[in-house]
Amino acid sequence: MKTYTHILFDLDHTLWDFEKNSEETLYTLYEQFELNKHGKFDCDSFYNKYKFVNVRLWDLYNKGKITQKELREDRFVKTLTGLGLEPHELPQGISEAYTDMCPTKTAVFPFTYEVLDYLQPKYGLHIVTNGFKEVQHIKMSSSKLHNYFKEIITSECCGYKKPDRRMFEHLLDKLEVKPEHCLMIGDNYECDVEGARAAGIDQVYFNPAQVKGRKRPKPTYEISCLSELKAIL
Q1: Is position 179 within any domain?
Q2: How far apart are CA 111 and CA 226, in angstroms?
Q3: Whole-number Å distance between alpha carbons of 137 and 143
Q4: Residue 1 lies in a domain
Q5: Using one digit for the tens of pLDDT, what is the confidence trace for 192-217?
């Protein structure tokens, strides 16, 4: 068995429960901005449409095809016009309200704190995320994750985005550690698994929905619950 000394985690969808926190925020915004007055869609439709749009825009952002500014501006425009609103009907400030509110939510995946308490005395723990720097720090502070991690590497701070292996190599250089002594844990197969593999780092594919993807190389490990990490580490 390999001897790992450093464990790298993705944040959103791996520790911080993005879907649950985003859903709670969007339901609040639906009421706050009185979107029901438009009479064209209900709260569930608003959430589902936003989720659909946001996933696709993040995919474009991760591939370098749109900017952070475009992602933030377009997700609500595309969501609301896709639900039937005219451009002049779009509520002013809803994007900013989402950006301010969502990172303060505190839902994390089951066993997050138990697993981090188990790992922290044994390994150096670090975050590697494509999320935006100021937002990720707020999420970690609000959900009391900050104190578990030594390095928090964002795409903004190093100039590269997962799955670019240079993002992982940036952290390796900073830690002065060899890739074989690190293990990456994340929910995004392309960004987390393939990116880590390209950098020579073993991977744990966090797949809570146990989704069967297209035929592709197996990760070093695959788990559906964070508690399974104890059997690996």
Answers
A1: yes
A2: 6
A3: 10
A4: no
A5: 999 999 999 999 999 999 888 778 89
